[in-house]
């Protein structure tokens, strides 16, 4: 039976080896709240222990992937970064509602399992989980030869976090005249890779080191790890009242910022008020991408937008010096570059 299954394209031994290779990294993320983790049919997490200090805890959950960034990782032959991307993306998504992470589950699938490759991906996820105090509670490693193309793999994950109901975001007090701050992106994060790959693969290729990147290769720039904003947001919330957060992912500023605004409000984002990472300049120039499309498909360096009262800007920037004042909330719906 084992030989027949292997002949059909599924190698159980490879899956077992992958789990053995990742075990130490996964277990390093476990604290006293983890009652059952890797190896169990279902992960068990002691919610009473984790939520003991909250008066009205609200669970916040999100699922996401890293899209075709996996194809860049495969082309470059580096797999430790995309696991970090996945966790950080999911942490940022629930952070927008004010939540802190509790536990994470990952899913890695491919046509043919490469144990070392899978272990590198999951170890990356574990590294990111440790950094934010989140347990990597479990996951799935799947080998599906008739679903995925040879050499390709898929990566997705689910995060569960918690916020006290009184601390949930966005606040209903967002109003015209409020300031919009930006926390910087490290690069494309996890969106826009189908466009970026088309430009790079039709041009110089991933190994090229254009002068604008200062010695970095295109592959390295595209694999820059999705930044996690947990610490910066915590510092901001200690210093000022944060009214809202918008994680700039697929859809860019035009689709993501309106998701947190009261009906009828919009925003103006002032060109030239933040530094655009060189990889975006390269892609825009090489791909001849129109400005509106660039800001719709890519984050253009605006990783997380933060809404605060206009009189809180100085205190916010003092608390988090990497933040930039990039715009304001307007009484006209829609987001505009000015």
Describe it for me?
Helix 2 (12-27) runs parallel beside helix 6 and helix 5 (80-95) runs parallel beside helix 6 (115-132). The model has no long low-confidence stretch (mean pLDDT 92). The chain is an alpha+beta fold and 338 residues long. A hairpin with a 7-residue loop joins strand 1 (34-36) and strand 2 (44-45). It has 2 domains: 2-167, 2-Layer Sandwich (60s Ribosomal Protein L30, Chain: A), CATH 3.30.1330.10; 179-337, PurM-like C-terminal domain (Phosphoribosyl-aminoimidazole Synthetase, Chain A, domain 2, Alpha-Beta Complex). Helices cover 36% and strands 23% of the residues. InterPro entries: PurM-like_C_dom (IPR010918), PurM-like_C_sf (IPR036676), PurM-like_N (IPR016188), PurM-like_N_sf (IPR036921), PurM_cligase (IPR004733). It catalyses: 2-formamido-N(1)-(5-O-phospho-beta-D-ribosyl)acetamidine + ATP = 5-amino-1-(5-phospho-beta-D-ribosyl)imidazole + ADP + phosphate + H(+).
Task: Tell me the count of domains.
Answer: 2
Arrangement of strands in the largest sheet: 8-10-7-11-9-12
Count of helical stretches: 13
Task: Tell how many strands the DSSP assignment holds.
Answer: 12
Q: Indicate the percent of residues in helices.
A: 25-40%
Relevant CATH superfamily of the largest domain: PurM-like, N-terminal domain
The separation of the N and C termini measures 66 Å
Unreliable segments (pLDDT under 50, ≥5 consecutive)?
none
Strand content: 15-25%
Enzyme class: ligase
Keywords: ATP-binding, Cytoplasm, Ligase, Nucleotide-binding, Purine biosynthesis
GO biological process, one term: 'de novo' IMP biosynthetic process
Domain PurM-like C-terminal: 176-337
């Amino acid at each position: 039976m084992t030989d027949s299954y292997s002949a059909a394209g599924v190698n159980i031994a490879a899956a077992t080896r992958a789990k053995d290779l990742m075990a130490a990294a996964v277990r390093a993320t476990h604290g006293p709240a983890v009652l059952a983790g890797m190896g169990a049919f279902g992960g068990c997490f002691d919610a009473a222990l984790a939520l003991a200090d909250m008066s009205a805890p609200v669970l916040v959950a999100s699922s996401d992937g890293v899209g075709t960034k996996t194809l860049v990782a495969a082309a470059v032959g580096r797999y430790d970064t995309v696991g970090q991307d996945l966790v950080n993306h999911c942490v940022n998504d629930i952070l927008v509602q004010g939540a802190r992470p509790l536990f994470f589950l990952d899913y890695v699938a491919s046509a043919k399992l490469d144990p070392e490759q899978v272990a590198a991906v999951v170890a990356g996820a574990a590294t990111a989980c440790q950094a934010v105090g989140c347990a990597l509670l479990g996951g799935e490693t799947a080998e599906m030869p008739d679903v995925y193309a040879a050499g390709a793999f898929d990566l997705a994950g689910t995060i569960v976090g918690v916020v006290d109901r009184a601390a949930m975001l966005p606040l209903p007090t967002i109003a015209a005249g409020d300031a919009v701050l930006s926390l910087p992106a490290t690069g494309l994060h996890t969106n826009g890779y189908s466009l970026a790959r088309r430009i790079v693969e039709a041009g110089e290729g991933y190994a090229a080191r254009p002068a604008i990147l200062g010695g970095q290769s295109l592959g390295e720039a595209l694999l820059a790890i999705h930044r996690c904003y947990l610490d910066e947001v915590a510092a901001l919330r200690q210093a000022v009242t944060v009214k809202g957060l918008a994680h700039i992912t697929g859809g860019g500023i035009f689709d993501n910022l309106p998701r947190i605004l009261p009906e009828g409000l919009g925003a103006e984002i002032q060109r030239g008020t933040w530094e655009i990472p060189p990889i975006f300049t390269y892609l825009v120039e090489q791909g001849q991408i129109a400005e509106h499309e660039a800001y719709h498909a890519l984050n253009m360096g605006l990783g997380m937008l933060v809404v605060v009262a206009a009189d809180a800007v100085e205190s916010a920037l003092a608390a988090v010096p990497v933040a930039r004042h990039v715009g304001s909330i307007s009484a006209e719906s829609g987001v505009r570059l000015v």
